[in-house]
Amino acid sequence: MAKPVKRQTHCFAPGCSTGYVSARKAAVKRSVFTVPNDEDRLKAWQRYVPRGDKLLDRTAVLCELHFEQRFIVRDYTHIVNGEVVKIPRGRPCLTDDAIPSIFPNTPSNLSKKLPQKRSSRTSRGEVLGKKRKVNDENELLSMEHDSSLDVTTNGERVPGASCTVEKLEHMKGEKLPSKYWSMCLLADAPNAIAFTVCAQDGDSVCFKKLVLCSAEDTCYHCVVFVQGKVVKKVDVFDVNAVESLLHSINEMVVCSGFEQGAIPLERLNSSNQSKYRTHGNKLYSKSCSGMCQDQRPCIHCRYLRKPLLNQASYKKRKARVATDYRASKKLIMRGRQLRREKAKVSELKQMLAKMKQSYSALSESNLQESLSKLPEKQRQQVQTCFEPAERKGTQGMKYSDKWLLVCIIMRMKTQSCMSIFESIK
């Protein structure tokens, strides 16, 4: 097993400070690139790097300052459904033909200007169209000399030709892309014809693909619907172009979305209504174009499905808890109240037991001695309270005259009556 090469941490170019302590302290961050593994490319780099004391080797690195921006790839570029999609890369990389040619900290004659690369359709992000193959020379001759064609080879309108609905009505059976396609005449639009592919979603039937062709004076205006969303609008000039359009739409792989039954719409917040759309018995993301690369749902629908499922599950749990909340909450509150009352009763029982124990230990002589120290009225009140405790009941019990007088005075509400009793000794 070959030992891994230990790369340098600073730029190899003369006068460059990338990777050194001064650049790190200044918070200057630049991407660095290793030398190519190919011997020929390595020699080309060595010829361009102006350093005479040391030769560029496989341990050296060069920073992004020494390359033209066209050689630095900062994004992943994909063509999805005819559109260029760019995703930022975590780390930039170099193209295969990258050459270091910019050295700002050296004399200007050492920086060599490279010839500009000729732009192509793919470099501009355009999609190359498929060329139609001609199997027979006779077919080519017939295409060139057939007077019934409404368009020329470059797609321009032939003077004098007309676009009518009657020409489209002959597109039946074998002229359609497959047996699942059908042609429909519209009652409220006599100048339009719809070519449809239907699909069954549960109890409902919806249009999976629909091409609406409106006949105008000079062209056919075609609007393409995929899963209920407009994906294309184009003007064509003959019936053959309409047939080619139908074949291209037939090859499209449509997004399958996700079932509406798994996510009840009544359990979703109103704020999420702007994120999805319904077609048939399925849900689709508003960002879904209706097409995908394979039979699975597109990435927008897959990313939307999980949050909607989580929200519907949360609403379901919340509704179930709300129905059982009142009864369970009342039961819990009554249980807590019962425990508090039982605790109070137990405390009172303990206090009463202690009082009985202390009273039984108190002798009669000690009680009389303690009562003799009290004032006369208080002593009378205490004795009156102790007497019922020694009896089985208060029925037939006799009270002293002084105690009765005190009770009568306590029931009085006027000051004049109380003054009369106070004057009597």
In short:
This protein is an alpha+beta fold and 425 residues long.
Which stretches are low in confidence, meaning pLDDT under 50 for 5 or more residues running? 131-155
What would the average pLDDT be, to the nearest integer?
76
Through-space gap between termini: 125 Å
Query: Topology as H/E string?
Result: HEHEEEHHEEEEEHEEEHHHHH
- Widest β-sheet, arrangement of strands: 5-6-7-8-9
How much strand content do the residues show?
A: 15-25%
The multimeric state of the shown protein is single chain
Cα-based radius of gyration, to the nearest Å: 49 Å
Tally the helices: what do you get? 10
Largest sheet: 5 strands, antiparallel
Structural class: alpha+beta
- Count of beta strands: 12
Sum up the overall morphology in one term.
Answer: elongated
Helix content: 25-40%
Note down, in words, how this protein is organized.
With 425 residues, the chain is an alpha+beta fold. 34% of the residues lie in helices and 19% in strands. It has helices at residues 21-25, 39-48, 137-145, 165-168, 239-250, 299-361, 364-372, 376-389, 401-411, 415-423; strands at 32-34, 61-63, 72-80, 83-94, 181-185, 192-201, 204-215, 220-226, 229-236, 258-259, 276-279, 282-285. The strands form four sheets. The protein has a five-stranded antiparallel beta sheet with strand order 5-6-7-8-9, covered by helices on one side. A three-stranded antiparallel beta sheet has the order 10-12-11. It is elongated. Mean pLDDT is 76; it is low at 131-155.
